[in-house]
Design brief:
Blueprint lengths: L3 H4 L9 E8 L9 H11 L9 E5 L5 E5 L3 E4 L4 H5 L5 E5 L2
Antiparallel strand pairs: 1-4, 1-5, 2-3
The structure holds iron/sulfur cluster (2 copies).
The site of one iron/sulfur cluster (SF4) has 13 residues, from helix 2.
């Protein structure tokens, strides 16, 4: 029996993955969390920050910290987090 997840289709479903190195530019991020949604959608076809490979943390003093959870293997070789960041806080480079 198919689950709700396996029934889903995306335009990235059959595209190969590629390792990408994400560099966080210091002092630019405004904490909008768009990158979390972009990542979870591109990787898991879900809008769920808990499924994102990039996490946004807001400290008690209001500072924003970004965390890359694991090596990025982005669908189609595109870093959607960096492409959709409104302030260009992320730089994406091909990995090894
Ligand atoms: S490069 Fe891809 S896998 Fe890595 S955080 Fe960005 S969207 Fe997610
Ligand atoms: S890295 Fe960009 S998209 Fe992600 S929270 Fe910061 S400003 Fe928003």
């Amino acid at each position: 029996m198919l689950t709700s997840q396996t029934k889903r289709t995306t335009d990235t479903a059959d595209k190969p993955t590629k390792t990408i190195q994400i560099t966080i530019k210091p002092g630019i991020c405004v904490g909008c969390r768009i990158c979390e949604l972009a990542c979870s959608l591109s990787q898991k076809n879900l809008f769920n920050p808990q499924e994102s490979n990039i996490l946004v943390h807001i400290t008690e003093t209001g500072e924003v910290e970004l965390e890359i959870v694991q090596e990025c293997s982005c669908v189609g070789g595109r870093a959607y987090c960096a492409e959709l960041c409104p302030v260009d806080a992320l730089q994406a480079d091909p990995g090894d």
